[in-house]
């Protein structure tokens, strides 16, 4: 079971910058009880966007995903995931964590015959050309992921790649495509029906950033041999734990409340996510989307303008001790830092007893694992010396079971935080706003007027400033 | 020449959230003139830590680097850089930008016979084991980088790898090591002398985060075939431009002043760095270190406690339009966003005219390059609609010449910002603080007392909270 240690956000440790944990747990116990009760009560109701809370119990999805993975086993050298934002970040973060390091550089044998995996989550022409240069499309399975099928970036990627596959493979190209999309509506569903692609479903009422445990995340993971049964087991256990309405027993509620009050009462507007593990390097990216898109809202539920939102910030231990930590300690005291600690790594590496007559001789004969954990201790005590609030989440080790717990913990925590802030955690109005401008600039029908306005705006702005 | 467009931070465009550019340029012209004059006057004086301003003129370094690269040409399949923070981020960011995409996955031929390159900037035991698993150490050149030789992380990595090389290669292992370190002092210099490694120098009075254009950054780049003469040409041109003491002609001064006043007068405590290019994915990491460590300071030059420091935040376009942008637009208005725009990519990719009877038909027949630039325009106008200040730096294209300009621009800008904030931009006291704790926990001689204190502190904190 993963653990949360909130010692170092307490006013007993860091004085006025900290919280009176006893007091806030008592004060918020009824509100937390109400929030958790409501979440569990509403999770099946349409329009609440809480269906992600049921993803641990969709046995048929797991079954279909495993069946498909078994069916294509050995057929492909590469999996190419086309998707952006929530359609890619979960799979990316989990595969980076759960596959052997440097997976794509390993021999097929070292990969136990599973394929390499690539996530294309941008439209950089040089990156796409480079990728097409290294992938044999005949031996590549493309998993295109977009619920609506109208995501311009993903569809543009798909159009380019599908066209090349068609040319290369003739009508057989279909066998190299699997689409994850809405169960009946949208452009990609229409195309899949017409052209005959294998499909998986992005379930209704599951937002992109909460979709990692649907087919969106599970399919790519299963295709490279990750044990999705263990993932489901991790979610289920965490779901049981987090159903507990008692704040003293629910770490998602504790962490949500601490972050909420750190923001509101202590001016900690920035939430730093700092795993001490290279395998978790993309976890902060997934967290950043979840926290930023869910909590960054202009209006509260009553329609009052509030411009809410703590800012997530990505970091990595120990690397960032030599980069961002100087600022975290001595700069504005506006951050709450979360360490992720891995108790046991898969490997233990001894630092040999060499260089005995030099100043680094103290390292010899100790493991580098010990150095890693010494660094977390050193960093967290340093933060306390500077009165900087910090929390530690501990994972017994990195595997499917514990990572599923970690990701699910953060989903629940985000939902609870949304309620504490009294905002809708499941919308993203400004993303839509920017999309419309993009459509306009790409001459999409129906956006002509917006396009003219936009071009005039840009030209006028430059004129005002005497530029161009 | 790279360009800065500050249209969208002006109060003409975003109202009260913006700055009166005319007024501030007039008001600060004398101060900027003084700062730039002083920087150029002091750059050769010891103790000012401004020697990085001379790195474009050290012809002998460039010569030695090129000579060594030519000498080992064809001998190695891999370059492995051991270093952390400033010893790694510059080389990492520049090699990612300047090498062909997916470099380490290319055939040797596609790499024009140059080696693959790996930066090991962490001490994760699983990552190190994984790396040792894929590298043939006989065909690997290790470039170990630490000025003092006492950086525990880098030296621990080096001890593990040197020991294996020794075992594998006998006394020939020396030929596979090149050390970049102090010219005469420190543990690594001592070892290099005793064991006979080829060495390069980290120049005096050049801090880690300003060392990218010394041998620290140039050597790894030259070893994989990057044109360091073009890099030097880029720095020199930029250096001339930035010597201009007139704020109206010096974009480093403009950007420093705008960021300074956005922080101090407009409450924009966060500086978002958002390149629209996959090749620039590590540029925000380099920038984050430079900006955070340089400006995040507890005391000003007069020793008054100020807890200074805007927080740099990493982002990537277009990807983060589906992740962090919702928060940037609708959350707290506490950010200034910098777009990096690439005018011309190396490749132009056409989106084919397929799916003509669907809602994505508007994409067909246009280039994905056009979509990329439409997205920046859409994002920047959206930011303006939400009254969020944003700047754009444009690169004509991505190559050695323009990237050197970009990196050098930011170094100068950081130095100017340090003066505006009246802080010492070239120290990092809190990093040292945390290092001492690490030494203590690793039983380094002389740190016993500190170790006991530290362990008691950790135990006591947990006791207070009733944990453990």
Break the fold down into its secondary structure elements and pairings.
The structure is a homodimer of 468-residue chains.
Chain A: E1 3-5, H1 11-14, H2 21-42, H3 59-72, E2 78-82, H4 89-98, E3 116-120, H5 125-134, E4 140-145, H6 152-169, E5 177-181, H7 187-195, E6 198-201, H8 215-223, H9 228-242, H10 251-266, E7 270-275, H11 283-295, E8 297-299, E9 305-308, E10 311-314, H12 325-330, E11 335-344, H13 368-385, E12 390-397, H14 400-421, H15 429-441, H16 448-464
Parallel strand pairs in A: 2-3, 2-4, 4-5, 5-6, 7-10, 7-11, 11-12
Antiparallel strand pairs in A: 1-12, 8-9
Quick recap:
The first copy, chain A, is of the alpha/beta class and 468 residues long. Chain A is built from 16 helices and twelve strands.
DSSP strand count of chain A: 12
Report on the biggest sheet of chain A: 5 strands, mixed
Uncertain runs of chain A: none
- At the fourth level of CATH, the homologous superfamily of the largest domain in chain A is Glucose-6-phosphate isomerase like protein, domain 1
> What would the principal axes of the Cα set say about the shape of chain A?
globular
Global Rg of chain A:
24 Å
- The CATH topology name of the largest domain in chain A reads Rossmann fold
Give the domain tally of chain A.
Answer: 2
């Amino acid at each position: 079971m993963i653990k949360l240690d909130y010692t170092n956000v307490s006013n007993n440790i860091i004085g006025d910058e900290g919280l009176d944990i006893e007091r806030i747990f008592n004060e918020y116990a009824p509100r937390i009880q109400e929030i958790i009760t409501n979440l569990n009560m509403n999770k099946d109701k349409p329009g609440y966007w809480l269906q992600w809370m049921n993803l641990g119990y969709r046995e048929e999805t797991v079954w279909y995903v495993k069946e498909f993975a078994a069916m294509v086993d050995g057929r492909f050298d590469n999996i190419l995931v086309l998707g952006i934002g929530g359609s890619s970040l979960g799979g990316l973060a989990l595969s980076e964590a759960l596959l052997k390091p440097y997976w794509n550089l390993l021999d097929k044998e070292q990969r136990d015959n599973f394929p390499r995996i690539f996530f294309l989550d941008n439209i950089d022409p040089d990156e796409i050309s480079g990728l097409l240069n290294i992938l044999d499309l005949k031996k590549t399975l493309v998993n295109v992921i977009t619920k609506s099928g109208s995501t311009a970036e993903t569809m543009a990627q798909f159009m380019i790649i599908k066209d090349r596959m068609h040319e290369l493979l003739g009508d057989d190209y279909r066998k190299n495509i699997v689409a994850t999309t809405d169960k009946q509506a949208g452009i990609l569903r229409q195309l899949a029906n017409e052209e005959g692609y294998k499909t998986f479903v992005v379930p209704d009422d599951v937002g992109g950033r909460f979709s990692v445990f649907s087919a969106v995340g599970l399919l790519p993971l299963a295709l490279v041999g990750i044990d999705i049964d263990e993932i489901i087991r991790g979610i289920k256990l965490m779901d049981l734990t987090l159903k507990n309405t008692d704040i003293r027993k629910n770490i998602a509620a504790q962490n949500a409340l601490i972050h909420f009050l750190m923001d509101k009462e202590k001016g900690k507007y920035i939430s730093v996510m700092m795993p001490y593990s290279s395998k978790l390097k993309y976890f902060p990216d997934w967290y950043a989307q979840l926290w930023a898109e869910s909590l960054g809202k202009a209006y509260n539920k009553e329609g009052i303008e509030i411009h809410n939102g703590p800012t997530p910030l990505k970091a990595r231990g120990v690397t960032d001790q030599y980069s961002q930590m100087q600022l975290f300690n001595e700069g504005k005291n506006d951050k709450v830092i979360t360490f992720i600690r891995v108790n046991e790594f898969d490997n233990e590496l001894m630092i040999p007893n060499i260089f005995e007559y030099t100043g680094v001789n103290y390292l010899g004969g100790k493991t580098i694992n010990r150095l890693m954990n010494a660094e977390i201790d050193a960093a967290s005590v340093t933060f306390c010396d500077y009165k900087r609030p910090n929390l530690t989440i501990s994972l017994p080790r990195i595997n499917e079971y514990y990572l599923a717990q970690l990701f699910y913990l953060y989903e629940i925590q985000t939902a609870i935080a949304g309620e504490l802030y009294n905002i809708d955690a499941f919308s993203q109005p400004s993303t839509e706003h920017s999309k419309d401008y993009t459509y306009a600039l790409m001459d999409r029908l129906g956006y002509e007027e917006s396009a003219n306005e936009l071009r005039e705006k840009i030209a006028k702005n430059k004129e005002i400033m005497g530029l161009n």
